[in-house]
Hints:
Blueprint: E1 20-25, E2 38-42, E3 51-56, E4 59-65, E5 87-88, H1 97-109, H2 114-120, H3 131-144, H4 163-178, E6 183-188, H5 194-207, E7 211-215, H6 222-232, E8 238-241, H7 247-258, E9 264-267, E10 279-284, H8 302-313, E11 317-321, H9 326-333, E12 338-342, E13 353-358, H10 374-385, E14 389-393, E15 402-405, E16 422-424, E17 429-431, E18 438-440, E19 453-456, H11 460-471, E20 473-474, E21 477-478, E22 481-484, H12 494-503, E23 509-512, E24 525-530, H13 544-556, H14 563-566, E25 570-575, H15 581-587, H16 591-605, E26 612-620, H17 625-638, E27 647-648, E28 652-659, E29 662-671, H18 674-694, E30 698-705
Parallel strand pairs: 6-11, 6-12, 7-9, 7-10, 8-9, 10-11, 13-25, 14-23, 14-24, 22-23, 24-25
Antiparallel strand pairs: 1-2, 1-4, 3-4, 3-5, 15-19, 16-17, 17-18, 20-21, 26-29, 26-30, 27-29, 28-29
Helix pairs in contact: 1-2, 1-8, 17-18
Amino acid sequence: MRGKRFPDVTASAPTASGLVRVRIAVETPQHSGLGDPLDYLSEQLLTPGTLARVPLGRREVTGIVWDDAPATAAARPAPGDLRSVAEVFRDLPPLPSAWRELVSFAAGYYQRGVGELAVSVLPAELRRIDAATLARRVATLRKNARDPGSGAAAPPRLPELAPAQEAALQAIAQARTDEAAPVVLLHGVTGSGKTEVYLREAERVLASGRQVLVLVPEINLTPQLEARLAERFAGRRLVAMHSGLTPAQRLRHWLLAHLGEANLVLGTRLAVFAPLPRLGLVVVDEEHDASYKQQEGARYSARDLAVYRGRLEKVPVLLGSATPSLESWQRALKGRYRHVSLPGRIGGGVLPRVRFVDMRALPRVKGSGGALAPQLVAAIHERIARGEQSLLLLNRRGYAPVLHCMDCDWKSDCPHCSAWRVFHKADRTLRCHHCGFTQRVPRACPACGNPDIQPVGRGTEQLEEQIGELLGDVNGRPARVARIDADSARAKGALEALLASVHAGEVDVLVGTQMIAKGHDFRGITLVAAVNPDAALFASDFRAPERLFSLLMQAAGRAGRDAAQAAGSEMWVQTWHPRHPLYEALRRHDYEAFAASQLTEREVAGLPPFTHLALLRADARNADDAPAFLRAAAQAAGALDGADAVKIYPPVPAAVARVANVWRMQMLIESPSRAALQRVLAGLRAPLLELRAAHRGVLRWAVDVDPLAI
Ligand code: ADP
Ligand code: ZN
Ligand code: ZN
């Protein structure tokens, strides 16, 4: 197909004027009531998937020629009323039909406009560029495309597969022959050799001339895997897709994927929409990770779409995790996914021993802002003396979550949100983590003038300070403590620098939020401690225990990664509930037992994966507007066909009810049948648009299908 122009194919019958009508997906806001592809006139017939510039209102925008779903003549404006296509991107191959099908499905399932979603998942640069410039870019990329296998490298030396890896690959091969589009859940603790299994499957797929898509949850985790893929597949072209790229890089990588020049695409959730003409394998690493769910616009789950895409394009999908999502686990139990497990760490490395500190037994120290058990401090001390590193996990940044006046009970609340402002000691500010409102810490209580206002509770900043003081000198110098969280990693390059100093052994104790629990291949860490994880045991969100278990298992996986030190490695948990079943399962590294107990609870309570949920969210400045809108929506839903198959709950405030002076309400819609839920949501689209017009006070509304947090 190189260099060839694409044939113009009939999209609909020519009109009397010789112009033809084409349907083009353009970015129209969902709330405008449009969202379906629009009709335009074209001098030529255009192949579906072709990109074109078209007028929209007073602007000219990039759109995609969509399928020719013929609307009835009556519903379509007469040709005279239609506007004409301005420019066609002839030198870019049309987006494949499988791509359009994926986008159509996602738009329907997540209740967004097709055009809105289709255009939003294209590189932004593509929406600005003109056809001639794009043609030049495409030509250059094609000219410079390396011949795969030529030049860069000796064949990499492959490790001899462990028996469990051999068995896993055989099971995957079996699944491939049995099923048109197998989904394999690869379950194994960190270090069990999952990535090596991905690499072997990828190698097979690449050798057959096809493309591989690898998804990771977070951009921070791409460099490691990118390095490993690049080393293994030195003769192949690998491109990354994530939000850290410049617009020009993003366009270039997207074009390489779409033109079939890239052999491997490694990316975060958006990459699930990468057009790949010869897709042969999809890998979703850490499939349980919440980052796969988009939290604004079309709230899609890239993991779920990857599975859909695999089925659509009849290619295998590998889902990997040490702690699979209960949705995926349930499907594996039911035989819908093939379950393949890697039972232990490669090379027989043991998992860290899990120890619990019963905090009830500690003497209470007033005003200490949260205790660190002396035995934990002593254990860290010992590790440092031996030249080993420790990691302290605390999922709360800042110095203290709130400042408090003991005299008048003033607390550092945010005037704009229903939340406390967090005390940040480094720059002496009170900062709202929801709306960003920041002020200098007052010298005295703003309400009564008491100069003695106290931090309550503890964040990572305080933990960093506290552990440094408690450890004092070790080996004749002060213990070196570093902190990694969203604050310390904010500046460009800061995270890389911090990680590098940990890897270089310049840090004795690393303090941080969940950012440090995931994925990092720290070699010197032999002790990991969760300082205060109990809150999630009793959180109102039913997924909180699942997330906690997964986080702690991941954190445990940071200890003893170097086989020589694995035997002495430990995971400490400070808890007031040492007998909690979640911790019992953690003690035994027993995901299966944890999953079984959670699934039983969920089934009894009628929660996912045994039921399907959608949240209708509405925001308004006036406290009454959003609930009124949601109640009206509930009424409209109740009147729809099939409404008896869903249950609609009364509107409730979101977890943080007010943010930046906006009230946030939500309403849960539930059904044991996914299809029934989808029917009601689809039926609700038109009524919602009408309601929105009648409820002017509502700033935004959105449907969140399969919400992760409720
Ligand atoms: P996971 O993805 O489950 O964390 P990896 O595939 O990254 O596991 O393997 C963990 C470590 O063991 C890595 O350093 C990897 O290079 C190494 N490894 C994986 N498979 C083998 C093998 N068969 N022989 C030797 N080392 C291996
Ligand atoms: Zn006061
Ligand atoms: Zn605020």
